[in-house]
Amino acid sequence: MIGTLILAGGSGDRIGKKKPLLNLGNRSLISYVIEVALEFSDEIYVVINRGDDIEGFRDRLPSRVEVVRDITRGKGPLVGIYSGLRHLRSGYSAVLPCDSPFVKVDVMRLLMEKAEGFDAAIPLWPNGYIEPLHSVYRVEAALRAAEEAIGEGELRVQNMVERLGRVAYIPVEEFKRFDPGLLTFFNINTPADLRNAEKLLSTSSPSG
Q: What is the spatial distance between Cα 61 and Cα 105, in angstroms, rounded to a whole number?
């Protein structure tokens, strides 16, 4: 059994509004991520900011998707991950941001395969940069690591990753057979990013 946490608690300051329900191609931004998660997950949790309208989110999402709030307001994605992990029954969970509309299901399935026997499977770029918000984690290990990091006041997702035991780092080149442009890792943070996403939608089917 595998779960998915979709992090939707960001402030959206750079784009001027809350990102999860932002319109992209006449759909909400988060709906693209949920659509992919429904293909491989037994349980899906959307984690929102403590001050957000939980019922307003539930009304816009499929019935299979649960919505939970951050345990603490405005503390970033690590607290969001921890808040969601506490609800999961699955042994492993994908973690995805709400603002990556072109995630490929085959990329996530490969990460799930690579995570077996490890505490996490995390994409790795040639320059050493990792993608901890497009990864798969063993729930028990990640929950413990996140709790330790938060307890010590270290609130970067990297602080959780550093506390994991065995981590499989997967070179992003391995994903190119499913996702030649590596659009899985494309995030929408600014109005320019949103315009680029609209162009991608109009010229191809990047999320297929």
A: 19
